[in-house]
Design brief:
3 domains; alpha/beta; six-stranded mixed sheet; 21 strands; eight-stranded mixed sheet; 386 residues; FAD/NAD(P)-binding domain; 13 helices; Polyamine Oxidase, Chain A, domain 2; Guanine Nucleotide Dissociation Inhibitor, domain 1; single chain
C-alpha cells in the first residue's frame, strides 16, 4: 500500500493496537499480552519511556532528565519496578534546607520552612482546608464530589486569591503547585487539583522527602523501567512509527503510522491528549472529546543539572534542598552517586525556554540559573566538574 509518506508495510491483524510506548502504553501492552491477547505497540520516537529519560554526564554517570522520584502510596510503579528488578535508594535528606524568601536566605530543618509566623499560619490554614476538601473527592469518580461543578468552574489561582490573606503565603502555595504539577495555579482546575491531592495522600506527602513523594529514586535511573518493559515486548514493539490516522469500522480499526499499517479489533491510545488530538480519526471523535484534546496541555518544566566532584555543601550542614519565591528555578535538590555528588535543580514553567533563562540576568549581572544554584549550595563558588 502506498501512502503520502511512501510505502507502508501492512502487519498481521492483532487484538489490540497500542499507540504510544510511554509507561502507560507499555504497561497496557504487557497486561494485554498476559491476558493472551495479540498486540502491536507503535511509538513515534526512536526510544520508549515518554517523559522518563536517562542521560549520561561527561564522566559516564547516569542522570535523569525527566521523572525520577517514587514515594509511599505509589504502589503500582513500586510493584512494577520490583517485578522488573529495578531497585531504589533513598533521596539524600540530611542537614539543613534553604528557603529564599523576599531576598533573604533562611536555613531550616525538617519540612516546615523558616518563614514569618503570619505567613506560616496562612499556609497552614490553606493546606488544612484544601486537604479537607480533597477528602470529599472520590478517586474513582471525581465528578461525583458534592461540590464538583463549583470546583471545576474555578482555578487553583482563584481559590488562592479568595482564601489566603498574605502575599507570602500565596506565593509559596503557588510555588508548591508549580513544583508538583509543572503548571501554574491559574491553569489548573480546582477539582482536578483536589482529586490529585486526595490520590497522592494529601499535600504534605506530595511535597515532602521523608515519607513523601520524593522519598526514593531508582538505581540506574527511572528509564530502566520502560527499557526493561520494552525488552519483554520486543516482538510486538515498533519505534520511529508516529501514528497519523485511526479508522474505525464495524469489524475493528485500521491504524496508519509512518511506514506501517496495522489492523486490530481495538486501538488503545496511550499518549497525552494534546498529542492524541494530532491523529486523524475516522469517524471523527465526539465533539466534547475533540475539544478536550485541544484544551488540555501538558505541563511545562525545565530541568538543569550541575555535576560537582564532591558535595561541598554538606560540610556546611546543608542538604542541598532549596526553595525560592523568585527566579526561574522554584525548587532544587541534590542527588548522589558512588563517587562525588550529582546536584540537580529543576526550574518551573516560569523559566520559559532555555534561551530565556540565559537572557534574564539578575540585578548583579549574573545568570539566574547560576545565582539560584549558589543559593541552594550556600553561595560558595565552585565550578561544576568537567
Amino acid at each position: 500500500m502506498q501512502t503520502a509518506l511512501g510505502y507502508a508495510r501492512t502487519m498481521p491483524d492483532v487484538d489490540a493496537v497500542v499507540v504510544g510506548a510511554g509507561l502507560a502504553g507499555l504497561v497496557t501492552a504487557q497486561w494485554l499480552v498476559a491476558q493472551g491477547r495479540t498486540v502491536r505497540v507503535l511509538e513515534a520516537r526512536d526510544r520508549v519511556g515518554g517523559r522518563v529519560l536517562n542521560g549520561t554526564t561527561a564522566d559516564g554517570h547516569v542522570v535523569e532528565l525527566g521523572g525520577q522520584w517514587i514515594g509511599p502510596n505509589q504502589d503500582r510503579i513500586s510493584s512494577l519496578a520490583l517485578d522488573l528488578g529495578v531497585a531504589t535508594f533513598p533521596t539524600y535528606n540530611e542537614g539543613q534546607n534553604i528557603v529564599s524568601y523576599q531576598g533573604k536566605l533562611r536555613r531550616y530543618t525538617g519540612a516546615i520552612p523558616k518563614l514569618p509566623p503570619h505567613v506560616l499560619a496562612d499556609i497552614g490554614s490553606a493546606q488544612s482546608r484544601l486537604d479537607k476538601m480533597a477528602r470529599t473527592v472520590p478517586l474513582d469518580a471525581p465528578w461525583a464530589a458534592p461540590d464538583a461543578e463549583e470546583w471545576d468552574g474555578e482555578t487553583v489561582e482563584t481559590w488562592i486569591r479568595r482564601h489566603m490573606r498574605t502575599e507570602g503565603g500565596r506565593s509559596m502555595l503557588r510555588l508548591a503547585v508549580t513544583a508538583v504539577f509543572a503548571a501554574e495555579a491559574c491553569d489548573l482546575s480546582l477539582l482536578h487539583f483536589l482529586f490529585y491531592v486526595n490520590s497522592g495522600g494529601q499535600l504534605d506527602r506530595m511535597m515532602n522527602v521523608a515519607g513523601g513523594a520524593q522519598e526514593r529514586r531508582f538505581v540506574g535511573g527511572a528509564q530502566l523501567i520502560p527499557d526493561r518493559l520494552a525488552q519483554r515486548l520486543a516482538d510486538v514493539l515498533v519505534t520511529s512509527a508516529p501514528v497519523r490516522a485511526i479508522e474505525q469500522d464495524d469489524t475493528g480499526v485500521t491504524v496508519r503510522a509512518d511506514g506501517h499499517t496495522v489492523r486490530g479489533t481495538y486501538a488503545v491510545v496511550c499518549v497525552p491528549p494534546t498529542l492524541a488530538g494530532r491523529i486523524e480519526y475516522t469517524p471523527l471523535l465526539p465533539a466534547q472529546r475533540d475539544q478536550l484534546t485541544q484544551k488540555l496541555p501538558m505541563g511545562s518544566v525545565m530541568k538543569v543539572l550541575a555535576v560537582f566532584d564532591e558535595p561541598f555543601w554538606r560540610r556546611d550542614g546543608l542538604s542541598g534542598q532549596a526553595t525560592s519565591d523568585v527566579g526561574p528555578s522554584g525548587s532544587r535538590s541534590t542527588t548522589r552517586r558512588p563517587k562525588g555528588a550529582r546536584a540537580s535543580f529543576s526550574a518551573s514553567s516560569r523559566a520559559g525556554t532555555p534561551a530565556n533563562l540565559r537572557r534574564r540576568p539578575t540585578p548583579n549581572g549574573k545568570s539566574r540559573s547560576s545565582s539560584a544554584w549558589r543559593g541552594a549550595s550556600g553561595q560558595r563558588r565552585r565550578r561544576p566538574a568537567k
